[in-house]
Amino acid sequence: MELPGDAFKVSHDGRRATLEAKDVCVLDSFQFGAPNPIPARVSFKVWWEATGPRERRGKGSTVPPTDPAAFLGHFATARSTGSFSGSEVGFSFKGRGDTDRGYAQFGPERNGVFLS
Amino acid sequence: MDAETTTQRPRISRRQLFKYGASAGAAATVSPLLPATTGVAHAHGLPRVLPAPKPIPGGIQIPGGPFIHTFAPGPEGLTLPFTGVPLGGLDVEPSVITDFKGVTALAFHVGTATGSDARRYNLETDLRAMEGRYVAEDGSRKRGLFALI
């Protein structure tokens, strides 16, 4: 989905980032591919803080474009936390999560025509 | 975002999709040609970017289902606890749009949520932000911020 440009902010030193959006309109079909999705709204604020140095990732154009490594990036592993809420007719929720049992990263990357 | 119920309430989860390392948001985000589970969305009150970015050419074929243009980067051997998604390694594309140059942020959160029914739910997210330049479907060069939730 498109978000306003100021919804995502990266610190000057590139070690922290935030993403925040409110009342984003989505369609929730509960199960993938299920018919009759219903309108819903979600809001979230997510923080990333790098926990390590940026590392080169990807293999660029040395692999086919369909390869998972068909990109070049400099990603730092991060810890991320987030708060989330959502609502639809008859139900809403609020929650929080972190990446202590998950995973987070961020950094610059390029793919496709920007590999050449 | 994906909240997985532990009760009998209809799922918010798209567990089957996530089992294959895919994300409903990805499908909905980057192309009208892709099936949408979490439908195309936009921030409240904002116009959508036209033309849209293009999905990455790679992705995952869900057995008996659609081809999803997304991967699940992360340390090999790490499996997300609620969806059971195995992460595919660190040399794995986190962006869901191609012809893209910018900053990508990705997070698989694990946590809990409380529903309006006062029940507690498992919460697991696949949340990604892609901010930068991209070549759109019509060949024009644009700049924008896209998110997969």
Report on this structure:
The complex is a heterodimer of chains A (116) and B (149). By secondary structure, chain A is mostly beta strands. Chain A has a domain at 5-50 and 78-109. In chain A, 0% of the residues lie in helices and 66% in strands. Chain A is built from no helices and six strands. Chain A has strands at residues 2-3, 8-10, 16-28, 38-57, 71-88, 91-111. Chain A has a five-stranded antiparallel sheet with strand order 2-3-4-5-6, with no helix packed on it. In chain A, a hairpin with a 5-residue loop joins strand 2 (8-10) and strand 3. The mean pLDDT of chain A is 95. By secondary structure, chain B is mainly beta. Chain B has one domain. Chain B has a five-stranded antiparallel sheet with strand order 1-5-4-6-7, covered by helices on one side. Chain B is globular, with a radius of gyration of 16 Å. Chains A and B meet through strand 1, strand 3, strand 4, strand 5 and strand 6 of A and helix 2, strand 4, strand 5, strand 6 and strand 7 of B. Strand 6 of chain A pairs antiparallel with strand 4 (100-115) of chain B.
Return the structural class of chain A: mainly beta
The SSE string of chain A, one letter per element, is: EEEEEE
Count of individual helical segments of chain A? 0
**Overall spatial form of chain B:** globular
Q: What portion of residues of chain A is helical?
A: under 10%
How is the quaternary structure best described?
heterodimer
Structure, briefly:
Chain A is mostly beta strands. Chain A contains no helices and six strands. Chain A has a five-stranded antiparallel beta sheet with strand order 2-3-4-5-6, with no helix packed on it.
Give the topology, please:
The complex is a heterodimer of chains A (116) and B (149).
Chain A: E1 2-3, E2 8-10, E3 16-28, E4 38-57, E5 71-88, E6 91-111
Antiparallel strand pairs in A: 2-3, 3-4, 4-5, 5-6
Chain B: E1 2-4, H1 15-19, H2 24-30, E2 60-61, E3 67-68, E4 100-115, E5 120-124, E6 127-135, E7 141-148
Antiparallel strand pairs in B: 1-5, 2-3, 4-5, 4-6, 6-7
